[in-house]
Structure formats: structure tokens, C-alpha cells
């Protein structure tokens, strides 16, 4: 590679910021996402987030069901350029049943913005997602939202976050209040006060801001003493007692800078964006089975963290979302799927902004590209030009099971196709149970909502109406050992033999007691809660995953 190309690649990688917003539902993630797009210049007016939940439809929502239910179900990626940075924003599903999808999105991120409601502080979902980020030592930036209305006192809130999550926090911005109304922000970094003009358009366009030196005389001409004095007292308190501003600790994932603001009225969003971009890390070296892979020095490599079929009814296809970890992706290049050893010619990547697709020719480390997939890749697969494998993306062990029943037997082919596609995307785990009439599909999921999504998508995208008959099993294990032993076990109480979509035998267990008893008794059999052939995918035990999420 020539020096000039090398230099450009290094510069390109250095300007990437790839992150996810983590929050409890309702904290304002959709609103903040939209305002980041507004301030980042990707959209000119915000307003697709309507106040009425039923009609709400944000730019990052794609699927019909998301719009209807007011929840964000699939991870999506938005990217845009702002002040020299290339921002890749990974949207993470908010519903608790979608922890697996969210977890996958976080494997592709280099940092996270943790969004809190100023009245509620840390909530269940925040806690779970935080612990996933913590495990990966992701730098976390905190945004305390909804400060346009009264909430927990900011100092108390910071204290709560610190004690609840066990991370050091320091206020980077501080709210300026007048008569209980949020009018501005102090930037503690450069000691300035930002006063926001309240627009007539309810935050649809960027707010007018005037900036004053915190210590200068001019600010006293616009802020009354009863605003300025308590503010200066609070800041003095913060300077004296609070955690110092320390971005090296943020980079190690040991401290979090706290920004206050209101996504709805735009106050503080600009400061969050600017300081986030300045201090969030660009892509760094990632661990692989051959040691750390430098994002600039190494040739192209990346891993698939999500597959989605039929994102757009106008294009019936599958898109594999690939996080580029090193080097440069160029349209037409070839890369090898480490799991299968197959070499693929990678067509032009697709870029996304909301439902719109555009085509881009290159992508570098830090970018997420959507690739057309004809069934060659799976979630967790590494694609690289040199033999190399990333630890991959964990799969959760399902805890809910249902047998799939078809009303119209003529649609069986469509059903099989739909189930196969949706299982490859990771929507559900697809299993088959033997019956007198042949194999019957059984699906496994981490959360019930995944079943609803399955039924809905089978109907919408494959024209198949199914009924799911819930099964009373609560755990599944892959089983290895002598066939006679497996057959004997399968004839016993509280278990059922099934096989996964790759034909590997599995046992379903009715309850934890049966599971434990079986595992202890059956010495000649090996039970695994991860698929035995796991090349390219680092499966995690249920205990491990539960620990990560609890
Ligand atoms: P989510 O994606 O995290 O679930 O949150 P979303 O952006 O949809 O916001 C949830 C609600 O919070 C919305 O209210 C939204 O307008 C409101 N909200 C978001 N940011 C702010 C903010 O900075 N200040 C205030 N005051 N509200 C904010 P909604 O859909 O109108 O309905 P409702 O839930 O309030 O009834």
C-alpha cells in the first residue's frame, strides 16, 4: 500500500465515531437520535417523532410493527458526516425481550451514550445495558434528558448513578435555570455559559445559542443575580468536591462524563455532540484469534453482527450488517468467511439513513456496511482477506419454546423458507421435532416478544399464517454421545429430543430440576448450552449471559 493511501486511511479511521445509545424505554432515545441527526446536519427539521405514541415514527424506525407499537425492535445504523467526523450511530432496540439484538449492536460499537430520564435516573434496562458496555470497557457518555422539566437535583442524580452503577461520574455540563425553567448550559470544559433561545417550533430546528464567558462581566448583563449566584455556588461546589474532568479514565471505561439537557427543546444537545465527538475514541485494535488487529495497519477484516431480511418490501433481500474492524472495504473486493472458508466477492455496500438506501463504494474500520447476503454468512461470522477470526457475537440460550402450526399445508415451503431466513437473522432459534408426519418446526426464543415478531413477519413478508403452540420447556441443550444413550434419554420424563437447523441433536427440558438431574446422571453424554460447532461465534453460557445482563 502506498504511503499516501496509508496516510488517508489512518486519517479516515481517526475521524470515525461508532456508538450506540443505551437507555430504558421512554427516556427519550428516539428524540435524542433525531436531534443528533438535526445537529449533525443529516436532517434539517426534526418532527417525525410525534407526541402521540400511536403516530410516532422516527427516522431510525423501519418496520411496520415498530411504528405501530411505538417500540424500536431491530438494531439499525445511521451514519452522517459532521465537522470532519464520520458518525455511525447504531440504534439499539429498547424492549427488554430484545436483549440479544441489543447485545449484538453493542459488539459493533466503540462507545456508548447512556441516556437517563432526569426524574428516573438509572432504570432496569439502563442497568442491564450498562453492564454489557462495562464488560467490553466501552467509554460511556451520560446524557441526563428532560431537564426542561423538574427532576431529581443534578448532584443527587450524579450520586445515584455512581452508587447504582459503580462508575465514577463527573459533570461536564451543568443546567442553568431561571424560575424553574431550563435556559442554558454551562460548559465546564471551557467555562462558558450557553443560553438557548426558545424557538416557536417546539425544537424542530436548532436553537439559537449565545455564548458568554462564565467569569466575564457580560454574562451579568443578561443573567440576574438570583440566577447567576446560585449557579456559581453550585459550580464552586462541583469544582471543589466533585470528580475532576478526566477523559483518560473515560477512555478506559472507568468514568463517565455527565451532560445535562433536553432532547425535546434541544438544550445541551449541541454540547453533547461536540464533546462526545472530541472525546469518544475512534476505532482501536480489536482482539482476534491471532492477537490484536490494528484498524489501520491490517488489511480488511470485519464481523457480521446482524442479519435482516426484507428490510424494505420493495427489495426482497437479506442484508448482513458488517462492522469493519480493520483496513478498507472496497466494492468488488473478495474476502473469506472464516467459518466456512468460502471466498465471497463483496458487492457495493449499502448505506442507510432511515428507510432510504444509498450506495457507497468504500468503508473503513469503524464503519458499518450493509451487504447483500444470499445466505452465505451468519451472525458472528468474520470476513477478512487474511485468515483471522474475531470472537464473534454471542447467542443467548432460548428459554421459551413453541411448536409452529400451519393452517394451510400448501404454504409449507414458504413457511420453511421464512423460518430459515428469520432464524439466520437470529430472530428465533429454529429446531425440528420428529413426528409421525415428518419433522415439525419448533422455535426457541429468549423473550416472548420474539414470537410475536416471528408471527408478524411470517405473515407480512412470507404470506404465511401460523399458530404458535407454546411448549412447556424452559431450556435446551445440545447433546453429544452414543446414539443409543441419547435415544434412551429422549424416551424419559420431562424431555424431548429435537434437532437444530444444522441437524445437531438437542434436548429440551421441562424444568430446571429435570435439566440438572439429567446432566448429573447421564455421565456418557455431554450437554452444551452453546452450539458445539461454534467457529466464528463465541457463544456464551446462559449463566455468563445472565451475569452480563443482571
Ligand atoms: P424512547 O425512544 O427512549 O422510548 O423515548 P422517546 O424519544 O419516544 O420519548 C419518550 C417520551 O419522552 C416522548 O413523549 C417524548 O416526547 C418525551 N421526551 C423526550 N425527550 C424529552 C425531553 O427532553 N423533555 C421532555 N419533557 N420530554 C421528552 P410522548 O411520546 O409525547 O408521549 P408521552 O410518553 O410523554 O405521553
Task: Describe the 3D structure.
The chain is α+β, with helices and mostly antiparallel strands. The chain folds into 3 domains: 257 residues, P-loop containing nucleotide triphosphate hydrolases (Rossmann fold); 99 residues, Beta Barrel (Elongation Factor Tu (Ef-tu), domain 3); 150 residues, Alpha-Beta Plaits, CATH 3.30.70. Helix content is 28%, strand content 30%. The chain is built from 15 helices and 31 strands. The strands form 7 sheets. The chain has an 8-stranded antiparallel β-sheet with strand order 27-24-26-25-29-30-28-31. A 7-stranded mixed β-sheet has the order 2-3-1-4-5-11-6, sandwiched between helices. It has a 6-stranded antiparallel β-sheet with strand order 18-17-23-14-15-22. Helix 11 crosses helix 12. The longest helix has 17 residues. The C terminus is likely disordered. Guanosine-5',3'-tetraphosphate (G4P) binds next to helix 2.
Amino acid at each position: 500500500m502506498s504511503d499516501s493511501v496509508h496516510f488517508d486511511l489512518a486519517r479516515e479511521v481517526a475521524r470515525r465515531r461508532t456508538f450506540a445509545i443505551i437507555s430504558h424505554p421512554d427516556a427519550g432515545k428516539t428524540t435524542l437520535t433525531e436531534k443528533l441527526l438535526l445537529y449533525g446536519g443529516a436532517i434539517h427539521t426534526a418532527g417525525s417523532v410525534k407526541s402521540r405514541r400511536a403516530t410516532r415514527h422516527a427516522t431510525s424506525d423501519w418496520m411496520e410493527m415498530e411504528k405501530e407499537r411505538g417500540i424500536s425492535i431491530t438494531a439499525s445504523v445511521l451514519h452522517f458526516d459532521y465537522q470532519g467526523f464520520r458518525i455511525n450511530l447504531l440504534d439499539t432496540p429498547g424492549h427488554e425481550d430484545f436483549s440479544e439484538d441489543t447485545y449484538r449492536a453493542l459488539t459493533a460499537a466503540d462507545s456508548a451514550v447512556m441516556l437517563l430520564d432526569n426524574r428516573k435516573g438509572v432504570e432496569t434496562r439502563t442497568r442491564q445495558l450498562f453492564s454489557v458496555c462495562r464488560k467490553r470497557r466501552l467509554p460511556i457518555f451520560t446524557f441526563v434528558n428532560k431537564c426542561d422539566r423538574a427532576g431529581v437535583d443534578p448532584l443527587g442524580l450524579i450520586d445515584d448513578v455512581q452508587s447504582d452503577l459503580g462508575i465514577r461520574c463527573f459533570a461536564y455540563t451543568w443546567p442553568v435555570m431561571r424560575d424553574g425553567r431550563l435556559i442554558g448550559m454551562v460548559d465546564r470544559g471551557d467555562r462558558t455559559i450557553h443560553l438557548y433561545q426558545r424557538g416557536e417550533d417546539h425544537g424542530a430546528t436548532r436553537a439559537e445559542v449565545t455564548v458568554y464567558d462564565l467569569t466575564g462581566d457580560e454574562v451579568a448583563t443578561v443573567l440576574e443575580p438570583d440566577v447567576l449566584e446560585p449557579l456559581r455556588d453550585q459550580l464552586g461546589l462541583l469544582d471543589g468536591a466533585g470528580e475532576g474532568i478526566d477523559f483518560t479514565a473515560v477512555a478506559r471505561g472507568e468514568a463517565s462524563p455527565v451532560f445535562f439537557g433536553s432532547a425535546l427543546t434541544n438544550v445541551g444537545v449541541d454540547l453533547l455532540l461536540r464533546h462526545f465527538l472530541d472525546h469518544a475514541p475512534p476505532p482501536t485494535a480489536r482482539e482476534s484469534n491471532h492477537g490484536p488487529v490494528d484498524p489501520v495497519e491490517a488489511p480488511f477484516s470485519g464481523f457480521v453482527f446482524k442479519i435482516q431480511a426484507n428490510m424494505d418490501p420493495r427489495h426482497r433481500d437479506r442484508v448482513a450488517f458488517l462492522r469493519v474492524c480493520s483496513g478498507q472495504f472496497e466494492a468488488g473486493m473478495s474476502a473469506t468467511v472464516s467459518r466456512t472458508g468460502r471466498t465471497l466477492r463483496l458487492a457495493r455496500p449499502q448505506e442507510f439513513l432511515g428507510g432510504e438506501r444509498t450506495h457507497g463504494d468504500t468503508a473503513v474500520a469503524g464503519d458499518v456496511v450493509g451487504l447483500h447476503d444470499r445466505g452465505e454468512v451468519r451472525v458472528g461470522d468474520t470476513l477478512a482477506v487474511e485468515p483471522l477470526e474475531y470472537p464473534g457475537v454471542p447467542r443467548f440460550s432460548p428459554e421459551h419454546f413453541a411448536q409452529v402450526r400451519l393452517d394451510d399445508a400448501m404454504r409449507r415451503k414458504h413457511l420453511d423458507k421464512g423460518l430459515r431466513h428469520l432464524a439466520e437473522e437470529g430472530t428465533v432459534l429454529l429446531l425440528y421435532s420428529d413426528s409421525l408426519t415428518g419433522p415439525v418446526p419448533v422455535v426457541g426464543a429468549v423473550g416472548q416478544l420474539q414470537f410475536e415478531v416471528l408471527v408478524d413477519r411470517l405473515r407480512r413478508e412470507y404470506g404465511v399464517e401460523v399458530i404458535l403452540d407454546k411448549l412447556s420447556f424452559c431450556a435446551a441443550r445440545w447433546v453429544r454421545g452414543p446414539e443409543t444413550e441419547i435415544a434412551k434419554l429422549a424416551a424419559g420424563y420431562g424431555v424431548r429430543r429435537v434437532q437444530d437447523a444444522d441437524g445437531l441433536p438437542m434436548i429440551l427440558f421441562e424444568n430446571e430440576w429435570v435439566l440438572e438431574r439429567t446432566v448429573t446422571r447421564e455421565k456418557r453424554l455431554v450437554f452444551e448450552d452453546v452450539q458445539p460447532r461454534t467457529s466464528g461465534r463465541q457463544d456464551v453460557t446462559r449463566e455468563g449471559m445472565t451475569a452480563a445482563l443482571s
